Amino acid sequence: MLPPPMTSPDTRLPGFSFDIRPAANPGSVGTVRRLLRDALVAVGSDPATPCLLLSELLTNALLHGRAASVALELRQGRLLMAVTDRSPAPVEVPPESATRTTGRGMTLVEALADAWGVVPLGASGKTVWAVVAA
């Protein structure tokens, strides 16, 4: 389930909303991350954590779901990132391992996001979302 809708915008705080359908290739991750970074810098927010989280969510979607769409919304100092892919496979947060060299993305999301979750879309895939202060 997605987090509850954000309350009406406070016109004193900057915000933005993007709906993106990146190309289904790894280079798209950097392109979308730069868009988010530039938007956050433009409104005076630190892009480091949001960009890391978005990179992890989008990389997973492209790796496991073959295609993705991204929704980004900054409102009242909170950034909602929702990445939809075409894979109905559940999202896993594997246990920590000193020997594993991959598979740490969702562990980072779990550790750094204020909240996150998955909305299953049946055979059409799923949406993985995260909210972080920005």
UniProtKB/TrEMBL annotation:
Q: What is this protein called?
A: ATP-binding protein
Name the lineage: Bacteria, Bacillati, Actinomycetota, Actinomycetes, Kitasatosporales
Q: Can you give the residue ranges of the Histidine kinase/HSP90-like ATPase domain? A: 24-130
CDD domains annotated for this entry? HATPase_RsbW-like
Annotated InterPro entries: Anti-sigma-factor_SerPK (IPR050267), HATPase_C_sf (IPR036890), HATPase_dom (IPR003594)
Give the keywords, sorted.
ATP-binding, Kinase, Nucleotide-binding, Serine/threonine-protein kinase, Transferase
Q: Which Pfam families match?
A: HATPase_c_2
What terms describe the molecular function in GO for this protein? ATP binding
